[in-house]
Specification:
single chain, about 400 residues, alpha+beta, Rossmann fold, D-amino Acid Aminotransferase, Chain A, domain 1, 3 domains, 6-stranded antiparallel β-sheet, 10 helices, 25 strands, about 30% helix, about 35% strand, ATP_grasp_subdomain_1
Length: about 400
């Protein structure tokens, strides 16, 4: 079905009568005059309804411009258009009772066009900042989607401590979770350090390895290593007097440090991407990140490098990765809502045991091109499925 958007009248038209998205009102048939000032594209049809129409929910930056992962939004739109679907980007403030003030990307012109869009078949949550998800506008939008039976895909950011506690109580995953506490009092942290000697201090709501420190107890003294700085303290009280306010105000977690397995003298971690597919949660791609300059984190912005999974692959690694991905998805759906996409940061100890460091509900782009391409295909397939449209992949790739 050919669908047209006339930017002068801000109205949608079609080549023959049909509805678009969740709007129950049939579109007007396009006329020669309206067609001159219109942009068109081909959509799939399901019971005289054109789609799928995908709403990508994001937020605004400090300058009130649209924020978020622009390259991801563009890639999704390109693939959706090739598969006879369409997406638009919007914020919670853009939502109206029967329409959305959205932004549609047109690859041929490489430009975004503001448009009055129909309510979408589903919403993909890519709000980039936790503080936006705490606003009344976001909560109002979430309620709106629920009331209108619009699937809300990936309901929100995950709280690290809450996820650790969920996994700790889930037998298939509990062995992979290192001891973790919220830093809330000097005595609790002191006892934790005394018990484990080597710990990590991590922001509860951090990402990309920012703000992580490795703390070790040396006799009565404390050594604190960051990504760029190191600090020494004569005793715990001296450390707490200087760092206690930061650790409690910023909601830091204390986590038992592992002794990592090494490859060529440097630690490496697994970065696992998973999606919901045909009733199960399965692995889409596996990347390996290896530290080079420091051993606190393997994130690439902090000096880590990517190496192929095949260079470390074993049967045991495969089994752990697929178990972790499947069980994490099922547990999140049962306790937190439907997360059709997530990534897992995990590691290997020098004793050959596995550790889950973090679950990310809004993965950033993977540096491995084939993983990112497969991700776009998996998301497109999932969008079609959740929206109730049949999907035939026209761009299938094999890594």
């Amino acid at each position: 079905m050919r669908i047209y958007y006339n930017w002068a009248s801000r109205k949608w038209f079609s080549s023959t009568s049909c509805t678009l998205g969740r709007d129950p009102h049939p579109l007007s048939t396009i006329g020669p005059k309206a067609e001159l000032n219109s942009i068109s594209f081909s959509l799939s049809m399901q019971n005289d309804n054109a789609g799928p129409v995908i709403g990508i929910l994001t937020g605004k930056g400090k300058d009130q411009s649209i924020a978020g992962n622009g390259p991801l939004f563009k890639s999704l739109q390109k693939n959706l258009l090739q598969q006879n679907g369409v997406s638009y980007v919007f914020t919670a403030d853009d939502l109206r009772e029967n329409s959305v003030n959205g932004y549609i990307y047109f690859p041929q012109q490489d430009k975004w066009i503001e448009a009055k869009c129909p309510l979408p078949h589903l919403v993909y949550n890519r709000v980039p900042f936790r503080k936006i998800e705490k606003t009344e506008a976001f909560h109002k939008a979430s309620r709106f989607f629920k009331e209108h039976n619009i699937p809300f895909f990936n309901p929100g950011f995950l709280d690290k401590l809450e996820v650790f506690q969920l996994f700790k109580d889930h037998p298939p995953l509990q062995e992979y979770i290192p001891a973790t506490i919220l830093v809330s009092s000097p005595k609790e942290l002191k006892d934790f350090i005394r018990k484990y000697n080597n710990i990590y201090l991590k922001p509860a709501n951090g990402s990309k390895g920012k703000g992580i420190y490795h703390l070790s107890q040396l006799g009565n003294g404390i050594r604190l290593n960051g990504l760029h700085n190191s600090f020494s303290f004569t005793d715990y009280e001296n450390f707490w007097n200087q760092w206690g306010i930061l650790l409690t105000n910023k909601s830091y977690l204390a986590q038992k440090a592992i002794s990592p397995a090494l490859k060529e003298g440097k630690r490496f971690d697994f970065r696992i991407l998973a999606h919901f597919r045909e009733g199960n949660y399965s692995v889409t791609g596996i990347g390996i990140r290896q530290s080079k300059k420091q051993d606190i984190t393997t994130h690439i912005p902090n000096g880590g490098v990517m190496i192929p999974y095949e260079s470390v692959r074993t049967k045991e690694h495969d089994e752990f990765i697929h178990t972790a991905a499947a069980e994490a998805g099922k547990l999140l759906e049962k306790t937190k809502g439907f997360y059709g996409e997530y990534s897992i940061d995990a590691g290997l100890t020098d004793q050959g045991t596995y550790v889950i460091y973090e679950i990310n509900s809004k993965p950033m782009s993977f540096d491995e091109v084939w993983i990112e391409e497969k991700r776009i295909e998996e998301l497109t397939r999932l969008f079609f499925s959740l929206a109730g449209f049949s999907h035939t992949n026209k761009n299938s790739r094999t890594p």
